[in-house]
Design goal:
Structural class: mainly alpha
Number of domains: 2
CATH topology of the largest domain: DNA polymerase, domain 1
Shape: elongated
Number of helices: 5
Helix content: 40-55%
CATH class of the largest domain: Mainly Alpha
CATH architecture of the largest domain: Orthogonal Bundle
Largest sheet: none
Strand content: under 5%
Order of helices and strands: HHHHH
Number of strands: 0
Radius of gyration: 22 Å
Length: about 100
């Protein structure tokens, strides 16, 4: 099985190299994506929370979907309420509360 995988990979790489030598662009294996920058899809009222280590745009997106739109709302919520938001979880809620208490 490993040998078959190796053959498949070398065959794919040799075809890609041949296409480049012939001046063709190599086939795309995955659609290209624009790099996302930290905070691109984060609501303005939640952006200050990006300063908390361990909290990123994805977590803040979940908070926004859960109805939180400002730092004050997150600060006022209990750790249990934050953990109940789909995608945040107990760990995210703990990190948020510890980060806001500093």
């Amino acid at each position: 099985m490993v040998l078959q995988l190796f053959r498949c990979l070398t065959n794919c790489l040799s075809r890609r190299s041949q296409a480049v030598r012939e001046g063709e662009s190599p086939p795309e294996s995955a659609p290209s994506r624009q790099p996302r920058h930290r905070g691109d899809a984060v609501p303005e009222g939640l952006r200050p929370l990006l300063a908390i280590p361990g909290i990123g745009p994805r977590t803040l997106g979940y908070l926004a979907k859960g109805g939180y739109t400002s730092v004050a709302e997150v600060r006022a919520a209990s750790e249990e309420d934050l953990a109940a938001v789909d995608g945040v979880g107990a760990r995210g809620a703990l990190i948020l509360k510890q980060g806001l208490s500093k």
